[in-house]
Amino acid sequence: MKRNFFHICNLFWTLTLLLSMSACNNEDDVLAIFTGKTWRVTYNPQMMEQTIFNGNTETITNTLNILNQGSNFTISFDGSEIDGAVGGTFTATGTNVTFTGEWSADGKSREMTLAIRTPQNYATIRDNNVLGNELLDCLRNITHYEGDSNNLYLYYEGGDIEFMPFHPDKSE
């Protein structure tokens, strides 16, 4: 009887040790999410039509006509991991405005920063399209991200919506 008790205790502690060593890593693979693709804004009518577009059907139609043309409404990230920090450079385009700069993201907290370098008047420049302007507001005021290699959500403050949704650009 005593022997069974010790056998059960040993088995319990062995299983506990194995499970603790194989615990999940909740940290994102930031490089896999951001780099190696171009992200294009995902049009979400439920979220955008009454906020960004104020219900203006002409503006919505014009935006949908140019949404998938060229590099409109896209962002691309290049980067690497150095000493546990992940970041690099980015290029983002509305319709007539292109921003470049540096980015960094934390895979554990999902906090993200962008430092826009060009154009130098980035704080006041506006795009020709309202969705382009919302993208620029997102880049200027980003706080964190969510997503994976198929969907990316950039959260920001001060915009008409809470986050900007993206999907990998299929035209690459």
Descriptors for this entry?
172 residues, alpha+beta, Lipocalin, eight-stranded antiparallel β-sheet, 8 strands, 29% helix, globular
Write structural notes for this entry.
It is a single chain. The protein has a single domain, classed as Lipocalin (Beta Barrel). The chain has 172 residues and is of the alpha+beta class. The chain is globular. It has helices spanning 2-21, 30-34, 45-48, 57-66, 130-140, and strands at 38-41, 74-82, 85-93, 98-105, 112-118, 142-147, 152-156, 163-168.
Give the helix/strand layout.
Layout: H1 2-21, H2 30-34, E1 38-41, H3 45-48, H4 57-66, E2 74-82, E3 85-93, E4 98-105, E5 112-118, H5 130-140, E6 142-147, E7 152-156, E8 163-168
Brief rundown of the structure:
By secondary structure, the chain is α+β, with helices and mostly antiparallel strands. The chain is 29% helix and 31% strand.
- Helical residue percent? 25-40%
Topology-level CATH name: Lipocalin
What CATH architecture label applies? Beta Barrel
CATH class: Mainly Beta
H and E order: HHEHHEEEEHEEE
Low-confidence regions: 11-23
Total of domains: 1
Q: Main beta sheet: strand number and arrangement?
A: 8 strands, antiparallel
> Count of DSSP E strands?
8
Strands side by side in the biggest sheet = 5-4-3-2-1-8-7-6
- Beta-strand level of the residues, as a percent range? 25-35%
- Average pLDDT, rounded to a whole number, is 85
Cα-atom Rg, whole angstroms? Answer: 22 Å
Structural class: alpha+beta
Span of the ends, CA to CA: 69 Å
Q: What spatial form do the alpha-carbon principal axes imply?
A: globular
